[in-house]
């Protein structure tokens, strides 16, 4: 970090009064900083912080103190694209070194659907994307420090930033105890099995082929759950996405294995992930679980519906889609899935918000046909999904982006956690087996909470 050179850059900057914010980009590789230290240091910003890490570590980004957000009560691709470019137009961006690799992103997403939510999701607007004061890129070791133009003091801003960075680097790691459980219960387990039976009775091979039904498990604890404990636990499972998203008094957490899509240049990458079997930890049994999954007719059917739907949803955006003829196995720590990678070359005018609208919800979390399944879920499923199974991710000014399907997730308030898990129901599904499958799917979040699955 060459402070003198940075100050020279700043001395040349003319603040543009048509903008609302100044955003400085600088390297932070000289500081020993990680997400634990950042959250520990910025405790006062609780309720306005996020951490997003891709499953392949392409992105590992922490945002602190939402300065401004794009928000909508109804999803509209056009309006969102305008709001996004209006927001970026308000920002005067100043890189302090040449050739830096990161770019300023917005973090957020949309709720699963626009069903009226009960109070538990009130902190989250239907669609929202946040622009934070501090954006730490922990992959490229860079920082975006953004402030309202009116607050900018060019002669002291560098000193302020480096002072804060030193303080963050000096934070000492703490040991945390797992919170003690007060109560743990499945919400309406028998009613859920009856709903699965009902779905099986209305599903067929043509008109209504698949619906994904989710259920919830509620845990309460003897004390408030410390965010730093959760952040630490989130590192325990690798190979999945990490979403830690605070908004007001709510916290949403996900360790999803499922990418909705990512876009780099003209290339879109996505995948079909559907069809599941438990990973037991016993080598011999697990080989059997995998070969069962690859050969089981019901799981293959569930999977093919997802692949078919994604490929057809992409058609308006591309002339060229590529995918393998046979699914492979995606190995997560607690569960195996059938998995088909899909790649497409996007046409020039493909908008990210249009893509999001077209692909979400895939039949891995909705069903087939999509509208019929969505309607069934809204009318019949207990409670509201909110951000469960919703698209959440990062988007850049040039539309480079990565979105996750936020399954294996939970919503936390003070000392309670509501866990969500769903599974694909097709003609012939068994409610007992699906109940067991959703039980297994609670494990990643229970692990984050330091609780054993029962
Ligand atoms: C809806 C969930 O999982 C989906 C993703 C992968 C496999 C699935 C399945 O086999 O049913 C589900 O479609 C969930 O974990 O809540």
What does this molecule look like?
The chain has 454 residues and is α+β, with helices and mostly antiparallel strands. The protein folds into two domains: 3-104 and 130-169, no CATH class; 181-449, Anthranilate synthase. 29% of the residues lie in helices and 33% in strands. It contains twelve helices and 21 strands. It has helices at residues 3-12, 35-41, 77-89, 157-169, 189-202, 227-233, 283-295, 297-314, 352-359, 370-380, 431-441, 443-449; strands at residues 21-27, 49-53, 60-72, 91-95, 105-110, 127-137, 142-148, 181-186, 210-221, 242-247, 250-254, 259-264, 267-278, 318-323, 328-331, 335-346, 367-368, 391-396, 401-405, 409-413, 416-426. It has a 21-stranded mixed beta sheet that branches. Helix 2 (35-41) runs antiparallel to helix 6 and helix 3 runs antiparallel to helix 9. The N and C termini lie far apart (51 Å).
Quick tags:
alpha+beta, binds ligand ISC, Anthranilate synthase, Chorismate_C, ADC_synthase, 454 residues, 21-stranded mixed β-sheet
In the CATH scheme, what's the topology name of the largest domain? Anthranilate synthase
| Terminal-residue CA separation | 51 Å
CATH architecture of the largest domain: 4-Layer Sandwich
How much is the radius of gyration in Å? 23 Å
Largest sheet: 21 strands, mixed
Shape type: globular
Q: Secondary-structure map with pairings?
A:
Layout: H1 3-12, E1 21-27, H2 35-41, E2 49-53, E3 60-72, H3 77-89, E4 91-95, E5 105-110, E6 127-137, E7 142-148, H4 157-169, E8 181-186, H5 189-202, E9 210-221, H6 227-233, E10 242-247, E11 250-254, E12 259-264, E13 267-278, H7 283-295, H8 297-314, E14 318-323, E15 328-331, E16 335-346, H9 352-359, E17 367-368, H10 370-380, E18 391-396, E19 401-405, E20 409-413, E21 416-426, H11 431-441, H12 443-449
């Amino acid at each position: 970090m060459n402070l003198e050179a940075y100050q020279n850059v700043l001395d040349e900057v003319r603040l543009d009064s048509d903008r609302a914010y100044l955003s400085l980009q600088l390297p932070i590789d000289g500081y020993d900083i990680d997400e634990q230290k950042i959250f520990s240091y910025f405790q006062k910003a609780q309720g306005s912080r996020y951490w997003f890490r891709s499953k392949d570590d392409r992105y590992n980004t922490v945002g602190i103190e939402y300065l401004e957000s794009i928000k909508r009560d109804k999803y509209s691709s056009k309006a969102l694209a305008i709001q996004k470019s209006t927001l970026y137009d308000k920002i005067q961006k100043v890189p302090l070194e040449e050739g830096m690799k990161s770019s300023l992103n917005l973090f957020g997403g949309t709720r699963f659907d626009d069903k009226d939510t009960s109070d538990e999701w009130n902190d989250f607007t239907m669609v929202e994307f946040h622009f934070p004061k501090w954006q730490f890129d922990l992959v490229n070791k860079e920082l975006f420090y953004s402030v309202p133009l009116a607050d900018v003091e060019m002669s002291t801003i560098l000193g302020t930033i480096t002072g804060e960075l030193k303080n963050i680097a000096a934070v000492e790691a703490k040991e945390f105890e797992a919170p003690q459980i007060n109560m743990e219960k499945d919400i309406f387990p028998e009613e859920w099995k009856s709903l699965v039976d009902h779905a099986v009775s209305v599903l067929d091979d043509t008109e209504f082929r698949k619906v994904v039904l989710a259920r919830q498990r509620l845990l309460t604890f003897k004390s408030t759950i410390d965010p730093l404990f959760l952040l630490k636990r989130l590192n325990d499972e690798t190979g999945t996405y990490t979403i830690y998203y605070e908004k007001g008094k709510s916290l949403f957490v996900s360790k999803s294995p499922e990418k909705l899509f990512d876009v780099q240049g003209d290339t879109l990458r996505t995948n079909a992930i559907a069809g599941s079997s438990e990973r037991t930890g016993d080598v011999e049994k697990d080989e059997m679980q995998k070969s069962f999954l690859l050969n089981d007719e019901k799981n293959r059917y569930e999977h093919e519906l997802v692949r078919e739907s994604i490929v057809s949803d992409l058609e308006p955006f591309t002339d060229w889609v590529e995918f393998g003829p046979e699914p492979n196995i995606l190995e997560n720590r607690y569960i195996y899935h059938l998995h088909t990678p899909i790649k497409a070359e996007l046409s020039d005018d493909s908008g990210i918000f249009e893509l999001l609208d077209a692909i979400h919800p895939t039949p891995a979390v909705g069903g087939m046909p999509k509208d019929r399944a969505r309607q069934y879920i809204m009318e019949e499923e207990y409670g509201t999904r909110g951000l469960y199974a919703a698209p959440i991710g990062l988007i850049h000014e040039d539309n480079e982006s990565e979105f996750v399907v936020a399954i294996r997730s939970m919503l936390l308030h003070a000392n309670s956690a509501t866990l969500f898990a769903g599974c694909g129901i097709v003609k012939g599904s068994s409610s007992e087996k699906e109940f067991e499958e959703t039980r297994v799917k609670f494990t990643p979040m229970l692990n984050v909470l330091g609780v054993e699955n029962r």
